[in-house]
Amino acid sequence: MRTRRQFVAGLGSALALPVAAQFRVEISGVGATQLPIAVAAFKGEAGMTAQVSAIVRADLERSGLFRSVDAPAGLDERSALPPEVRGRGADALLAGSVMRLADGTFDVRYKLWDVVRGSEHFTRATTVAAPDLRLAAHRIADEIHEKLTGERGVFATRIAYVTKAGRNYTLRITDADGEGGQVALASAEPIISPAWSPSGKDLAYVSFESQKAVVWVQNVSTGARAAVANYPGSNSAPAWSPDGRDLAVTLSRGGPAQLHLVSREGGTPRRLTSSASIDTEPVFAPDGRTVYFVSDRGGGPQVYRVPTAGGNPERVTFTGAYNISPSISPDGKSLAYIARQGGAFRVTALDLASGTIQTLSDTNDDESPSFAPNGRLLVYASREQGRDVLMTSTLDGKIRTRLLSSGLDMREPAWGPFGR
Amino acid sequence: MTLTTRATLLIATAALLAACSSPVKLDEVPVESRNPTAAEGAASGTAGAGTSAATSGTSQSQVATVNTGAAAPAAALSQRTVYFDFDSFELRDDSRPVIDSHAKALTANRSGRMVAEGHTDNRGGREYNLALGQKRAEAVVRSLTLLGANANQLEAVSFGKERPAAEGSDEAAHAKNRRVELKDKP
After folding, report:
1. The pTM is what?
2. A-chain residue closest to B11, CA distance
3. Is ipTM beyond 0.95?
4. How far apart are CA A218 and CA A199, in angstroms?
5. If one looks up domain A4-16+157-415 in CATH, what number appears?
6. For residue A106, what is the enclosing H or E element?
7. Fewest CB atoms less than 10 Å from the CB: which of A3, A123, A128, A236?
8. Per-residue pLDDT tens for A33-62?
9. Is some CB atom of chain B closer than 8 A to the CB atom of A184?
10. Cβ distance A270 to A278 under 8 Å?
11. What domains lie within chain B, and their CATH numbers?
12. Chain B residues touching A281 at Cβ < 8 A
């Protein structure tokens, strides 16, 4: 039995937001155990551009780990714990206030109660710039997630992806809830393979604006950018080293696609693989010492790994004839990739220690899986009813959400790091 | 002339000059920088104004937009296409006349330059298809050089599955999309 719910993330009705990349979130296959939490309306938030309590509530619900319970009105962080909250079945209660200060910044204060014990989890305060009110709400949701589940939340992170409308391609950046979307790059030619720097300040990507594939690095907040790999042939598949100093890229340079390492400042690339086959889609292991990649040296494309210092590649995937687009979990233990099963391309997870394989989706045209920085969730591209869509899934495949946008084809998602 | 148009022209000119020079040396990395347009820069400045954040001084939510300008004009003086079988980089017999005529033209005119642009059908991953298309383009370039063209007259590039000639996912569309387009470089 499959439950299906729909709601508009952030309860858009009351909000005046940039509409470009708003997407609705559909949740399917919700897990059985959900923690009941009451999130009270924050004092002073009515009429503001972003309603903190609504954003926190939507974040928690979307994770599939929380269930929203009605909260009493008129609470803030200084209130006493109202006795009726326990009667409503809530295990936790969040209340707080938002105040606009004279310099235009916002003072946000909040308190999380342990309703069952009748005690306080924490009381906190933060001051943020006006455009960061939404970010402040996501950070509160992250703190609650971590306090109550023991795992770091990813609500304050961002996702980069590419949209296509006719011949207009845009590289967009949105909050992990799909709200607050902004355009980083607009082009009349394709854009593929965005990759976040470990700091979350830069995006590498492949742009065809010069009628061939060139790897660029762009500062997200300023828009300043430079081509870091623009050699004869194709330059593609950028992946950042964990220290953010180097990129692994695929260069053809007059031969088959091969992996190279290049400084993010440019400079002479160092060749990492030497085969007569296709070697592409590099991704660094979290320790930086190994690069996973795709090669068809054995016939069809399979995932291999090679020491970053150089050496002999070893094969990693053995099941199936076509395994591409590897993404490594932040703990380095799981590999997500796209496996062809018959005529279907599906997100698959491989436990590297045990070799256990699990198919995570039931769609047929999955592409480009990307791990959230807490390793609990993946975002990937798929196709539904003739449209390119983005999906998220938990690593166990139990909770999947579809991120909906207003009629745009969405592809090439890349989940950003914790920082920004 | 708008600022954007002028920028596009500058870029086009730069690309043209680059195309006419000898192949880029691998130890000289060509790095270009471009900044957001004035209008967009101003807009982001406005959004950030009056928000002296107590946290870090600037907004951490701001994203600047870069626009690469309008589509490049079709530069091709002539354009020929060769098609490939599924999962194959072998030149088919029916591509011989096209390859031969272009090899002759390049041999006769040593200042002539061409781009071989590889494409794939829409099945499978974007990056893997980019590499597959590159392999097809390299096969065409190799064939042209074996027939007398100089390597420095040719560049093999790929669009993978990003620029299909035919929409759709049936075999007829797939067959039209598995191709290499030969384009003159002005």
Report:
1. 0.83
2. A210
3. no
4. 13
5. 2.120.10.30
6. strand A106-114
7. A3
8. 789 999 999 999 998 888 999 999 989 987
9. yes
10. no
11. 81-184 (3.30.1330.60)
12. 125, 127-128
